[in-house]
Design brief:
Number of domains of chain B: 2
Mean pLDDT of chain A: 97
Radius of gyration of chain B: 19 Å
Largest interface: A-B, 19 and 25 residues
Distance between the termini of chain A: 20 Å
Low-confidence stretches of chain B: none
Helix content of chain B: 25-40%
CATH architecture of the largest domain in chain A: Alpha-Beta Barrel
Number of helices of chain B: 12
Order of helices and strands of chain B: HEHEHEHEHEHEEHEHHHEHH
Structural class of chain A: alpha/beta
CATH superfamily of the largest domain in chain B: Aspartate/ornithine carbamoyltransferase
Radius of gyration of chain A: 20 Å
Number of helices of chain A: 13
Largest sheet of chain A: 8 strands, mixed
Shape of chain B: globular
CATH class of the largest domain in chain B: Alpha Beta
Shape of chain A: globular
CATH architecture of the largest domain in chain B: 3-Layer(aba) Sandwich
Oligomer: heterodimer
Structural class of chain B: alpha/beta
């Protein structure tokens, strides 16, 4: 079956394309890109006039919660949320129950994704067995089973000697280690950023240094081992400075930032809304400015949601007892189009590159571009659509978002995976 | 001006006029304590629930007496021996109590923001009787009333708050309340017990007891929780008492002769406060407790008595 996406503004940063063109999809792959393409017989035509046609967006940091915490999310609901939010692929973290620390769990997730998944699913394997930080997980088997990276995300591997060995052991696999950079001895007991708001609210805080200390360590270990280390959810100006410096020295370090760390500050915690609680915590205006600058200049390579579904009962009560994390798949693109692109803080083409080309390159994933022959994973945006975030209509099984009620201009409009329109 | 708020959650949210109204109301109710029959009918038919999730003697008793002297029906709820021990969540318990139509719920909880949470969820008036390290507004009000009665005024006075500022809800409420009424506040303690950016709340900072108490009208000593030692914030109780404990000797050497010594209680005798100081002539610690009842009467009266007050 074939599909002609007609008259949209095609932005494909990997190939320096930006202009009104038609995109022809055949047999699940990009067939042609050009002006006024003739429609072959039996082609389905999508009128994309006024829309923006991009390579499929990849969210390299989500929690699908399956197996083990299906009351929060499943592969089926999480991937439908992804498709609704404009994503054609997600990478799911290993902190399931059981932990994805062996090939059997990876196989299970991939089998679920094949049967029930609405978008592509790339599992991430654990670095240490049971995420306990004590001994290495079976990293070779995880890689062979299809894990595209390794991470104990949710926890920091505090044992530097062990983390160094993980970097060395995984060198042959061409898959990065993804660091949840948080020194547990500096963040113990904390519910939020340490600063003027924690002093005022009396909530226990963790300093930016809790993150910076570990980013510095990880950069030094990457330099020692020659491994590729990717820093998850960078939230501080200090971490940005360390990453920028390391990149300038040729260290193989990459980084991601979440939408919420780009548009919210610790001030949001004054509402006592547990949906403003996550790890790393919301930081200060100065940090947000540094993150935005780093995203624009490429110091931060990509955007990722850290989609972290939790049931209402885990996010409705006392702030210090609530779970860490928020969902992001169904709000991320619209929030950034409205809050960063529309006011001119980030060029649209950069946003698209950071969601598609760059995560694909970083993880060696197919997709991320619209060259003929590439998988027909396509995200189409409607820059003028106005939406009000309504968590009750999420495809995700969870509703823990701080963005409920926000009016946003610009939204994902259509998602194609392997040439098929996904209707979540 | 009149009282319009549904709840009393923090000193931070109040303006100077509201604080003065609360203190004035409390002052006018003080004489009830000296009556033979300590009962006025002001809140007859009103129900006050004390919802205490943290142990408390002084504050809970104070609210209970305040409610009873105003003729309200006062019910005490404590977390132990309740549905909480069966796993019911805080908010569920509170909603169940609210379904029985109390007019005022007085809440104490170890989580900062707990009172704000109830205020958002429940239709009745909420009084914050201490939420984590956030605020304890009725303590600040009774401190203000005590100082005003002893010194005759508040404006221009200088108060030193000494000890574990970082974990103290009393310090936060005092700083907000005192600053709004034109007082100067210095917080003092070892740097590990001073929260970051406390200057932005309007307080000055000192790391030496002798400096902090030198030129102040009031010294407020805070309780040192013993677990601060195991958390690595101070080396030992012995060292803390030596450098931060207030003794007669230090008072005589460094403080003004008319200084007031206050403490929100309970006192660690011999740690932050030498017994001779706690019981000495400078001390107004028991005056604070007496005025606490008047303050809580005032708060209950204003909240339950406001127009359309209490639960509908």
């Amino acid at each position: 079956m074939s599909l002609l996406i007609r008259g949209g503004r095609v932005i494909d940063p990997a190939n320096n394309v930006d202009g009104v063109q038609d995109l022809l999809v055949e047999n699940g792959k990009i067939a042609r890109l050009g002006r006024n393409l003739a429609a072959p017989a039996d082609v389905e035509v999508v009128d994309a006039a006024g829309k923006i046609v991009c390579p499929g967006f990849i969210d390299m940091h989500v929690h699908l919660r399956e197996p083990g915490q299906e009351y929060k999310e499943t592969v089926a609901t999480g991937t439908r949320a992804a498709a609704a939010g404009g994503f054609t692929a997600v990478c799911c973290m290993a902190n399931t129950n059981p932990v994805n620390d062996n090939g059997a769990v990876t196989d299970y997730i991939r089998a679920k994704a094949r049967v029930e998944g609405a978008v592509r699913v790339y599992p991430i394997g654990a670095v240490t067995r049971g995420l306990r930080g004590e001994e290495l997980a079976e990293l070779a088997e995880l890689a062979e089973s299809g894990c595209v990276a390794f991470s104990d995300d949710g926890r920091c591997v505090m044992n530097s000697g062990l983390y160094r060995r993980a970097m060395e052991y995984t060198l042959p696999f061409g898959a990065p280690l993804i660091s949840h950079a948080e020194d547990a001895s500096l963040s113990r007991g904390a519910s939020m950023n340490e600063g003027v708001v924690s002093t005022e609210t009396g909530l226990p805080g963790q300093p930016a240094a809790a993150e910076d200390v570990m980013v510095a360590r990880d950069v030094l270990l990457a330099e020692l081992t020659g491994a590729h280390v990717h820093i998850a959810h960078v939230s501080t100006a200090g971490a940005v400075r360390l990453i920028r410096d390391a990149k300038a020295r040729g260290v193989q370090v990459t980084a991601e930032v979440t939408p919420h760390h780009l548009v919210l500050t610790e001030d949001a915690v004054r509402t006592w809304d547990p949906n403003t609680k996550m790890a790393p915590p919301l930081r200060t205006k100065r940090d947000v400015e540094a993150l935005l600058e780093a995203l624009a200049d490429g110091t931060i390579d990509c955007i990722a949601t850290d989609h972290a579904p939790h049931a209402l009962s885990e996010k409705e009560g006392e702030f210090d007892r609530a779970a860490f994390g928020i969902v992001g798949l169904e709000t991320a693109v619209a929030v950034l189009l409205d809050r960063l692109v529309r006011p001119g803080l980030l060029p649209l083409a950069t946003l698209i590159a950071r969601w598609s080309r760059d995560p694909a390159r970083l993880l060696n994933l197919p997709g991320g571009n619209l060259a003929p022959g590439a998988p027909a994973d396509v995200t189409i945006l409607d820059p003028d659509a106005e939406t009000v975030v309504d968590p009750s209509r999420f495809r995700s099984r969870s509703r823990n978002t701080p963005f409920g009620g926000w009016t946003l201009r610009g939204a994902p409009w259509m998602t194609l995976v392997g040439g098929n329109v996904v209707r979540p | 001006m009149g009282w319009t708020r549904k709840d009393l959650l923090s000193m931070r949210e109040l303006d100077a006029g509201e604080i003065t109204l609360l203190v004035d109301t409390a002052a006018s109710l003080q004489e009830i304590a000296s009556r033979d029959i300590k009962k006025v009918p002001a809140l007859r038919g009103k129900t006050v629930v004390n919802l205490f999730y943290e142990s408390s003697t002084r504050t809970r008793t104070s609210f209970e007496i305040a409610g009873k002297w105003l003729s309200a029906d006062v019910i005490n709820f404590s977390a132990s021996g309740s549905s909480t021990s069966k796993g019911e969540s805080f908010i569920d318990t509170a909603k169940n109590i609210a379904a029985m139509s109390p007019d005022v719920v007085v809440v104490r909880h170890s989580s900062a923001g707990a009172a704000d949470l109830l205020a958002r969820e429940l239709p009745c008036s909420i009084v914050n009787a201490g939420d984590g390290a956030h605020e304890h507004p009725t303590q600040a009000l009774l401190d203000l009333l005590t100082i005003r009665e002893k010194k005759g005024h508040l404006d221009g006075l200088h108060v030193a708050i000494v000890g574990d500022i970082a974990h103290s809800r009393v310090a936060r409420s005092d700083i907000h309340g005192m600053r709004k009424l034109g007082m100067t506040v210095t917080v003092a303690g070892p740097p590990t017990l001073i929260p970051p950016f406390v200057q932005e709340l309007g307080a000055k900072v000192s790391y030496r007891l002798e400096d902090a108490i030198g030129d102040v009208d009031v010294i407020m000593m805070l309780r040192l929780q013993q677990e601060r030692m195991t958390a690595g914030l101070i080396p030992s109780l012995r060292e803390y008492a030596r450098y931060w404990g207030l003794t007669l000797d230090k008072l005589a050497k460094h403080a003004r002769p008319d200084v007031l010594i206050m403490h929100p209680g309970p006192v660690n005798r011999g740690i932050e406060l030498a017994p001779e100081v706690a019981d000495g002539p400078y001390s107004v610690i028991l005056d604070q407790v007496s005025r606490g009842v008047a303050v809580r009467m005032g708060v209950l009266l204003l909240l339950a008595g406001r127009k359309g007050g209490g639960a509908a």
